[in-house]
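It is worth pausing here to work through a concrete case rather than discussing structure prediction in the abstract. The textbook approach is simple: state the sequence, then state the predicted structure, then interpret. We follow exactly that order.
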Amino acid sequence: MHIQAMPEKECLDALARLRFGRLACTYFAQPYIVPIYFAYHEGHLYAFSTAGQKIKWMRANSRVCVEADEIISPARWLSVVVFGNYEELPDTPKYKLVRNLASNMLSQRAKWWKPASVTSPHRRTSDTVAPIYYRIHIDLVTGHRAIPDHG
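Step two, the predicted structure:
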């Protein structure tokens, strides 16, 4: 197996194809990582959530990282890492178009809303209903792929 760095265009093409990843954020030097569904469009990852720990942490520190991968076999896979900034897309006239874009892109993906809307005992009822759309401005994207040896 050979591991190769992926050019930026291939990383972005992979993000356009992939839909599931892991979002990492920090709060007072404590890291936190959670699964998310996302959609890629023109230099941004779009996602949805409800109020909770990750939103609180990203509001406090907008620097985030997202990792997404595609595993075909132990010797054939790719992994893409995004470094960027969180931007909330509030339900206001200023963000109407971009919220609609996010909603339309995400709704094309089966069960995109599931991780964000599952209720848990620590959430207040009102927290589970208010949708929070956000996007990650991609500052840097890197990736690697594994290719099996032929021989």
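Step three, interpretation. The longest strand covers residues 132-147. Residues 115-119 have pLDDT under 50 and may be disordered.
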